[in-house]
Write a structure and sequence with these properties.
single chain; 5 domains; 2 helices; Immunoglobulin-like; about 550 residues
């Protein structure tokens, strides 16, 4: 609740409004934090919720401060269309909660008190006295605000306008002689003074940064502001830009390549000065083209755009700036092809290599029903690539939706894997980058379940040793080994327990003999750097 009250105070200051926030909430009051202020002789009501409807029975009573006599009652309110959103609009109500009256007429200038009245949730009248303050005073007005055109060759603009003082008593205006005002452009604020008639004409220079920072639908703006009797008013003006003749010379106006390949569009951007000289566009001016990655000009005016081909197209190439008024056209001719993306490969603890990728195909000729993809392996990732598994990806003519590849194959040892579509004379091939696969091998070379035979109810002790190749074989300490038992005649293995390996890699655990069956040990849950391992199976006969 405090956040909303603070927000409306911030909003009020933004429009030169003075607010008073009530501290007492009424029973059955739908707007317990309602408050009021003023702007240009209007009463502004803030309800503090998300309701866009004017509160039922809303009235604003205006009286002289300190007097109980009501001088005016306002009953016509509309939702404020341009209320400032100075709080977090994602979590707090913006101008939806602000309502304004028509201008009020009062007998004399001064400061007045606003009482608010509306209908409560149970139909009863709810009154909030001293809900806000209305300033009925002379206020400043900005009019005839203009900014002269600029261009690449003419960077100076003249901002002009008139400052006057409006008197709400009789609706008269007079020049605001010698008024101080500010003109803000971006982060820069300049202070100036109007002449004896309230008129001003001030020259400002636009810098070359505006060439880069002005997108095609935006131009340089000035915000002019002035104050009188504590009341501030402001008004914005856009500086018109006269675009200069621009030439985009492309290295090629037609680009051809297979579907999925990345192509590059190169060119040089220049503009024509008044004396006919061609000059490069200012460095770092953005060059755009639909579907292409944007590029920036170098000091020479050169630029490079890039795109992954996804089909035929004709697009415009142009500067992203209002300062330069030309464009070029590039035609893209895409030929049959395929490409992989989001490729990943890893080795599982089960000694399997798992690969995944998305596979796009486009401009595929008629009669094509599938494309053959190979999973290839190389020890060094550069030479000796061999296919370890091949599979078909269903495909139809034209452009296909991305196919999700998920395949597994036995772990061939440390090395690299990739996906490759070799292609055909009609369809361009594709290959992924190589991905390193590696897990350290483990083994349980020693294992025994004893004694053999074992007497029922007596201990059976399972022992063994876990090694890992790091890189030569050595004991693997501190690892969990899991024990499994399968009764004779059964096909189901049951987990019986686990233990940790000692410093020399050995492990042991005892169980009570119950019936004849087989035992084995497994390094079943290795870390991400190791493979799993299983011991040999050892049968123990249990006697009565």
């Amino acid at each position: 609740m405090k956040k909303r009250v603070s927000a409306v105070l911030t909003a009020a200051m933004a429009v030169g409004t003075v607010w008073a926030v009530p501290t007492v909430a009424r029973a059955a009051d739908p707007y317990p934090i309602v408050s009021a202020g003023s702007w240009e002789e209007r009463v502004i009501v803030y309800t503090g919720d998300w309701d866009t409807n004017v509160p039922r029975g809303l009235k604003a009573h205006v009286r002289k401060k300190g007097s109980p006599t009501r001088l005016a009652t306002l009953t016509s309110f509309t939702r404020r269309p341009d209320g400032p959103c100075s709080w977090d609009c994602a979590s707090e109500p913006p101008q939806d909660s602000l309502f304004q009256s028509d201008p009020v007429k009062l007998p004399e200038l001064g400061t007045y008190t606003i009482d608010l009245e509306y209908t409560g949730t149970e139909g009863e009248p709810v009154v909030h006295e001293d809900s806000g303050v209305l300033s009925y005073a002379e206020r400043p007005v900005i009019s005839n605000l203009k900014s002269s055109p600029v261009s690449v060759e003419h960077l100076d603009t003249v901002v002009s306008g008139d400052l006057s003082v409006y008197n709400p008593l009789d609706g008269s205006s007079k020049p605001y002689a010698g008024a101080a005002f500010t003109a803000k452009r971006g982060a820069e604020t300049t202070s100036r003074t109007a002449d004896a008639t309230g008129h001003f004409e001030e020259k400002f220079r636009i810098d070359h940064g505006d060439f880069r920072e002005s997108p095609a639908d935006s131009q340089t703006e000035f915000l002019v502001a002035t104050k009188l009797n504590g009341e501030q008013t402001s008004k914005g003006v856009t500086t018109p830009v006269a675009p200069v003749e621009t030439d985009l010379a492309l290295d090629s106006s037609t680009l051809t390549g297979p579907f999925g390949d990345r192509v590059y569009l190169r060119g040089t951007a220049t503009w024509k000065s008044a004396d006919g000289t061609r000059k490069p566009l200012p460095a770092l001016t953005t060059i755009d083209s639909g579907g292409w990655t944007s590029g920036s000009t170098a000091f020479s005016g050169g630029f490079i755009l890039t795109q992954q081909l996804r089909g035929d197209a004709v697009t415009n190439v142009k500067p992203r700036s209002v300062w330069f008024g030309s464009k070029a056209t590039v035609k893209v001719d895409t030929t049959p092809g395929a490409f992989f993306y989001s490729f990943a490969a890893s080795v599982g603890p089960d000694r399997s290599v798992h690969v995944s990728s998305l596979f796009g195909r486009g401009e595929i000729p008629a009669g094509t029903t599938a494309l053959k993809v190979d999973i290839e392996y190389s020890a060094d990732g550069k030479t000796g690539w061999t296919s370890r598994k091949a599979f078909d990806v269903p495909t139809k003519p034209g452009t296909n939706q991305a196919f999700s590849i998920a395949q597994s194959l036995p772990y061939p040892g440390p090395g690299y894997v990739r996906l490759r579509y070799a292609g055909t004379p009609a369809i361009h091939g594709a290959v992924t980058a190589a991905v390193r696969i590696e897990r350290t091998n483990t083994a349980i070379p020693e294992f025994n379940a004893a004694p053999e035979p074992a007497a029922k109810g007596k201990p059976i002790t399972v022992t063994g040793k876990l090694n890992h190749a790091a890189p030569t074989w050595k004991p693997f300490a501190g690892q969990t080994v899991v024990y499994y038992f399968r009764p004779t005649g059964s096909t189901t293995w049951t987990e019986m327990g686990s233990s940790k390996t000692a410093a020399d890699g050995t492990f042991r655990k005892s169980f009570t003999a119950t019936r004849t069956g087989s035992w084995y040990a497994s390094y079943a849950y290795p870390d991400s750097r190791h493979l799993g391992a299983k011991s040999r199976v050892d049968e123990v006969v249990v006697t009565p």
